[in-house]
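Data availability (excerpt). The following record was deposited with the supplementary files.
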Amino acid sequence: MEHVVAAAVVDARGIVTGWSEGARLLTGHPATEAVGRAAADLLAEDPPPRADGAWTGPVVVRHRDGSPVRLTVTACPLLGPDGRPTGYTLTAERPRPPEQTLAGRAFQQASMSMSVFDPRQRYLRLNEVACKVMGVSEDVLLGRPFPETVEDAEHSRGFNWHLRHVTETGRPVRYESFTGAPSLNREHAWSIEMWPVREDSGEVSGVALAAFDSTESYLARQRLALLNEAAASIGTTLDVVRTAEELIGILVPQFADFASVDLLDWVLGADEPPPVPDGEIVLRRVAHGSVRDGAPEAGVRLGDTDAYPPYSAPARALREGRAILSQAGEPDFMRWFAERDASAPEGRRYRHGVHTMIAVPLRARGTVLGVAVGIRVAHPDDYEADDAVFAEELASRAAVCIDNARRFARERTTALALQHSLLPRGLPGQAAVEVAHRYLPSGSTAGIGGDWFDVIPLSGSRVALVVGDVVGHGIPSSATMGRLCMAVRTLADVDLPPDELLTHLDDLVTHLAAYDDGGDDVAELGATCLYAVYDPVSRRLTLAAAGHPAPAVVLPDGTARLVAMTPGPPLGVGGLPFEAVELELPEGSVVALYTDGLIEGRDRDVDRATGELCNALTAPAATLDALCDTVLKAVLPEEPGDDVALLLARTRALGADQVATWDVTPDPAHVAATRQAATEQLTAWGLEEAAFVTELVVSELVTNAIRYGAAPIQLRLIRDRTLICEVSDGSSTSPHLRRAHESDEGGRGLLLVAQLTQRWGSRQTDRGKTIWAEQTLEPE
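Predicted structure:
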């Protein structure tokens, strides 16, 4: 339909005195019917109330045929000699259709709030985001002055001042504001830019603005500012309580309406920390603060202790070592505060109105000191993930200051941190065994020992299981443990048998002792170690020990026993041999490796303790992790006097359908037949995509074995998480990569294998050597 604009004149009494042809086209009423009538008689709905003066807004009139017609009307007052309105001129048009131009759609669909005002700060245009922020549709706001659409607040007055300033000066402005909005339930930070809109003559005819919600960056800057403030204000003294009070000063009121700091009792005087209990946790209140005088939210007086049940946020934060967020409506939240209110003097509801809480552990150098708790009552925002990150960072800084203030035994703290950093945090994935482990550091005054364990993947889908114990306690033992752990990994990479590996490790300990102590007391750096290798193809476990307790084995039928073996001398004694023992295990057997702290003690009988260990290993358990907990609970005393490392491994087996073996005739003419057999086997396994690389690897390795090795020659393919190709021969000469020159006819085979496969290597065997290569397989 052709765009039509209507015009009409209404006097001060509301009587129509003028009527245009456009008005007739839009309403159907000719001038003869409209002039002289009350304007209200032509309306289908009562118009919204308007202030005196010009305005623009939606109006619904009644068409001559009785149907409603929605129009956008602009009214301008007609002023008499005394300056008072004597009537109004009205212009009307149908509401604008959806934007058709690209620029119009870009304005309407912009991701930021955009608006246009006239020189008198009245709305002319709003996009969709601006309407959402204001909480009303565009037609409700059009023509209305900005102050009428918002509450009379400082930020609203400032916004209107900037609108007038841009109109008067013709210069753009940019500023930030942290305010709310009619449709938002919390305050937001806004980056606002206003600029003048000019006519061709240069006259300012309006003001446009864009407001970007910068709340996240604003809050991030606020948190960073608080952290900077904390760095300067926390830890100004070497007093534990004063340091806790300084932490409260940072938290309240910027981060919490009420905050408290509770510490474990040993922080305030005991020499060494006990483990955090799994159940109820008792903490001592050292500091709290509130935005209200007297901290009425506090249910615990300063200096008193309080018991925190396991489900409470402070107890969970201590056990889990991370910030715990809790909100009103959650069962544990409601239960916790109901119990706190009930236990308060005279049942007074100190925490009425609390809607969110955060509990963050105070940890320094790996040691838990206590917990800081913050709650919000008047602050409208709930704690979120970003708040948890900030709280953990702030608590970490405060905890270091608390730890420095209490002058904790630095050597023990450092040794504990070093021990945890050297022990494996995540064991590598492999198919040979399923593993679970536990490490319990010593709680004695002697400090942390040198217990360690490891699981090392080897070639041919085999895996090495290691557990060891360094003599002594403290930093020297932890450092030696780290060196031995790395040495075992290095020797394991060479793929030495267990007894040979321990022989090399024994020489290393002897050299370390001689270097560190000048040879006066070699045994001071002594250690024990158990090294075992399990092969899932043959289901054989080969192991050797250097002064270490024998492992226990639980068979699938439920019987448990210690492995009969000669433990050998401890590492560092030197000059004595180590003996390896080999046994075949049914699939699903459990091998338990452990350090002597599990079964030995000042008042403990070793035979009785090993019997308890075997009985505990046969107890029903849903998982290996659960079995670890069962063993520790059944065997360990309440206060173990030494470190304890426990490593459980449940064996798996590779079936005959996962392994293929061929004896190879030592004749180059048979290489093609061997390659063809390998290709057919891959087809049977559904691994055709690996056939090309495997053909090249088989060809190169078999050819090398024929040329440079000795009979018997054997090819073996293993389908595991990777595809493993092994070629064994009777020669003990190890291959090595070299760079072939342009004139060389050979020398590129191993280089090709190394480039095509994930990894490759060789290992010595009783009858020669095996060269192997692994390829990754696409997940099924």
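Summary of structural features: The first strand starts at residue 5 and ends at 11.
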